[in-house]
Amino acid sequence: MTTAPAAMLRVLYVDDDPILARLVEKALGRVGIEVSHAEDAASAEALIAAQRFDALVLDHYLPTGTGLDILRRMRAGGGRTPTIYVTGSSEATVAIDALKAGADDYVIKSTGEDFTALLHRAIDQAIVKAELLAAKDRADIETRIARERAEMLLAEVHHRVANSLSMVTSLLRLQASSGASDEVRTALSEAQARIAAISGVHRSLYLGDDVHTVTLDAYLQSMLQDFRKTIPGSIRLTIDACPVKISADRAVSLGIVVSELATNAAKYAWPEGGAGELRVELTEPEPGLARLVVADDGIGSDPEGMALGTGLGQKLIRAMAERLEGSVVQPAVPKGTTVVVSFRV
Ligand SMILES: Nc1ncnc2c1ncn2[C@@H]1O[C@H](COP(=O)(O)OP(=O)(O)O)[C@@H](O)[C@H]1O
Ligand SMILES: [Mg+2]
Hints:
Elements: E1 9-14, H1 18-30, E2 33-38, H2 41-50, E3 55-59, H3 67-76, E4 83-87, H4 92-100, E5 105-108, H5 113-177, H6 182-207, E6 213-215, H7 216-228, E7 235-241, E8 245-247, H8 248-269, E9 276-286, E10 289-296, H9 312-323, E11 327-329, E12 337-344
Parallel strand pairs: 1-2, 1-3, 3-4, 4-5, 7-9
Antiparallel strand pairs: 6-8, 9-10, 10-12, 11-12
Helix pairs in contact: 1-5, 5-6, 6-7, 6-8, 7-8, 8-9
Bound molecules: adenosine-5'-diphosphate and magnesium ion.
The site of magnesium ion has 5 residues, from helix 8.
């Protein structure tokens, strides 16, 4: 048998049988439990409202109504006091109803030693269970607070990284405008575009509702909005992306791919100027598979041909596609250049 806890436990015993009530009071008193007694629902509920009990013991048949009424009203009102239900030996369905209504346990009523012993054990177990649940609730709350704090800090870090990277791109822009040669200017502006693709990921992470994943439609929209400002107005840029979510480092890889492809189109597709269309599309053709299409209607290109510039773009695209565990294909199209990157999400 369990030993009585150090602090006096207080139990409310609800039963219209005064003899049994006194028996319970005595038996539980011997193991350090102070028993209050109520004979009907009204006085029981008045006591429950006025005092704090460590446990309730409810008899089924009361002068008006049953113990279930008390139990249901208490649970409905958010009361979580551990409750033991007392039923007759032939009333299995009452016991089931009581458990469904939120009783922690039930004890079959009899007149004798074993009734009070069983009652005592049931009370102790219900109290231990309630304490464990309360401890778990507290731990859950602490965990949630700690996680929220960590995510707030992480968002703050992404904010700072995004700002610092924006500063780097501003510095590169400044450097490019201060009398550099064409070649240096091109290199600096391509570096700027790549860094902007990365800083955009950090911006998405602190602006989005989840600090761990990037929603690609918002990310691509905002990154290409910035890119749009750097290209001639004669190029019509359209963006059509679905809200696929991927991790931050994969979003960086994808962002660099998009940046390289879009930069190349702006640089090479329309050497004579004139109007052109550049389309960036991200779809999920089947669950778990994403497809990026970057297409222009310019002069077209040979994927095996010699690069006019450094050729770094193709290398980066291959490396980033590999990080995405994706594939890059350049299908033959009647006009312009189309590149399709497929990857798992
Ligand atoms: N959309 C495009 N339209 C026309 N030519 C392109 C296009 N994309 C790439 N190219 C050609 O492919 C070459 C390789 O591109 P890339 O590897 O990015 O090198 P870079 O941009 O340094 O020239 C470019 O030099 C260009 O000739
Ligand atoms: Mg390039």
